[in-house]
Every structure is written in structure tokens, then in C-alpha cells.
Amino acid sequence: MRLLHTSDWHLGRAFHRVSMLGAQAEFIGHLVTTVREHAVDAVVVSGDVYDRAVPPLAAVELFDDALHRLADLGVPTVMISGNHDSARRLGVGAGLIGRAGIHLRTEPAACGTPVVLSDAHGDVAFYGLPYLEPALVKDEFGVRKAGHEAVLAAAMDRVRADLATRAPGTRSVVLAHAFVTGGEASDSERDITVGGVAAVPAGVFDGVDYAALGHLHGSQTITERVRYSGSPLPYSFSESDHRKSMWLVDLDAGGAVTAERVDCPVPRALARIRGTLEQLLADPRLVPQEEAWVEATLTDPVRPAEPMARLCERFPHTLSLVFDPERAPDDPDVSYARRLAGRGDQEIAEDFVAHVRGAGPDEREQAVLRDAFDAVRADEAVREVAR
């Protein structure tokens, strides 16, 4: 059986105030063409269909168009909700839509009930694990302490239990939206850390033939059977080195996996350039970046006059301007933002405690801070669901 694995469409999202709706529509067309030209048997979409719980009307219309075009192909599609989606909104009408071959899986309680498709070699069971917010689903899965690994492991126990009841030789595919250990994040994924831990081990997916992951925006192979498709379009300059693609996955009669990448159309290349303003305006090596979307980091010791206007004369698609004056590491004027770069909420809070009283928090205080951050994230998740 041949699968097309994609995720993280983020319909409705802009790129530094530039609308991506046209590029997203082009991607949907490319997806449909790929399904047709590569004789795809099933499409899997591993969450974050929309960029927010209440998407703009234009994004909903594009999603509706995608559903109709996929249904018209007669190729089954299995789709889960991600942490950006409202599971309840995305799942409205799932029963009716399923009759057209579009299978929406947004209910955590149904993770052990697969969509079963068949080919010449027998059945393939597709299990949809929507994004599992630990604080909201721990009771459903009977875990004592909310955590990503605990709830995902409990969900996978249900998957394996159902798979054990099926005919010998039944192959299996799991769709999941999570941060798996070994994955490389970018700046455009929403933080899902709970208890100071965001990642879960890849071994949680043991026992299935293929795990089609969503959440991280770079295409990645965690193991031969556990992969991220990545987002089809860039949503931050941290993705400037990404090759945007989908996975074309073949499951043979015994469940062995072979996979190849299918590139996605990107409206414009991304470029990150750095130097003084005069260097950037004069450097002949930057000619290829003149038609790219540009993030420029200026290292001038004194902020130059009208830097954006001057940059746009050479790089008309400059979208982001960062000032990072070159100074000695011990210079007291090194920016606060620079000192915080790459640090998480917990680390920043612990550093603040150390700064105020001269000693960092002990283990008990660290636990209090961690619980406080988890409570805030859980409250945000509840409000997202209620919207």
C-alpha cells in the first residue's frame, strides 16, 4: 500500500505578515496532483490542519476545497487534529464526511478504533491519535500524573490491544502529533512542554509498521518506521535550511517500509544574512538572496539611519530586521534578549530567582515553578477547547 504522509498545513497562517493563503492553495493542488500521478492508495495528515482554534473563513474555505478534491479522487484520507486545531471544530460532521472517504480522528477516546483499508495483501489498520494534551486526557487514559509520555504510551497500549485482535498479517499505521526524542524543532512550533518535558521516546510506537508524525516543521527520519513529514511551507526564518516535502511511503506485504520525499512548491526562498548595513548592501555574494524573503541581522555598533528602507532597495522582500551590535561578551550593554536566547521558561525563572537572592531554587522550588508553568499551559489548553 502506498501512503502520502503530510502534516502541519497551518491553514490561515501568515509569514511575517505576508499572507500564505495563495501558497497554501498551491500546495493543496500539488497534493492532489501527487496523489494522482504517484498512484497513492491513502493520504495521512498528522495534525495542525489549521493554525488556530478559530480559523479565518478563507482558511475554512480552502480546507473545504481540499476535502472535496481528495474525495473526488476516491483515495481515502485519514486526518487527525493537532495542538493548533480545535479538535471539536475540526471533527464536526466527521461521521458524514467519513462516508466520502475522509476520516477525521479528533477524539482521544477513539484512538484504539482504526480506519481499516485493504490492498492485494490484506488489511492495513490506520490508528489516529489526535494531539493529546496531558492535563485534559489523563483521566480518559487512567494515568496518575499528566505527562506526554504517559498519555501517549496509554494510547498506544489501546492501539496494540486492538491490533492483537485482528487477523495475522494485518499491517498498521499510526498518526500522532507529538514531540519525539531525536526530533529537531524550529521557532514556529508552539511549546507543548509539560513537567519540564516535551519529548517522548520513539519506542512508544513499537509494534506498528509506520508512525506518521506531525508537530515538528522539518522533515525528519527518527527511525525507518517513525518519521515527520514537516510542514509543506515555511513559517519562520529558522526553517531557512529546510527542504519542504511530503513522504511517499510504501508498505509491502510484510509491513516493510520504503520511503522517498516529494518536494513541495515554496513561493520564495528564505535567506538569513548578517553584517553591517554597508556590508550587506555591497557584498556581491548576496546576489542570490535579492529575490528571497530576507531576515537581516545588522551588526553595526550604532543603529544606522533608515536601515529597512535602504535594505529594501537591494533586497525588496526583506521581512525581518534584527539588531545585534558586535560587542565584547562582557559588555554590560549586551541585550537582555540575547542573554535569554534559546532558554526555556523554566530556565529563565530559575535564573531570575538566582539573580534576586543570590542562589538558585532548590529541588522543591524547581518543582513549584514547574507546576506553575504546567498549570498555565493547561489553562490555555482548556480555553482553546472552550473557544
Automatic annotation (TrEMBL):
Residues 1-217 form the Calcineurin-like phosphoesterase domain. Keywords: DNA recombination, DNA replication, Endonuclease, Exonuclease, Hydrolase, Nuclease. GO terms for biological process: DNA recombination; DNA replication. Residues 267-355 form the Nuclease SbcCD subunit D C-terminal domain. Pfam families: Metallophos, SbcD_C. CDD domains: MPP_Mre11_N (cd00840). GO terms for molecular function: 3'-5' exonuclease activity; endonuclease activity. The keyword Kinase does not apply. SbcCD cleaves DNA hairpin structures. These structures can inhibit DNA replication and are intermediates in certain DNA recombination reactions. The complex acts as a 3'->5' double strand exonuclease that can open hairpins. It also has a 5' single-strand endonuclease activity. Belongs to the SbcD family. Heterodimer of SbcC and SbcD. This is Nuclease SbcCD subunit D. It comes from Streptomyces sviceus (strain ATCC 29083 / DSM 924 / JCM 4929 / NBRC 13980 / NCIMB 11184 / NRRL 5439 / UC 5370). The lineage of its organism: Bacteria, Bacillati, Actinomycetota, Actinomycetes, Kitasatosporales. The gene is sbcD.
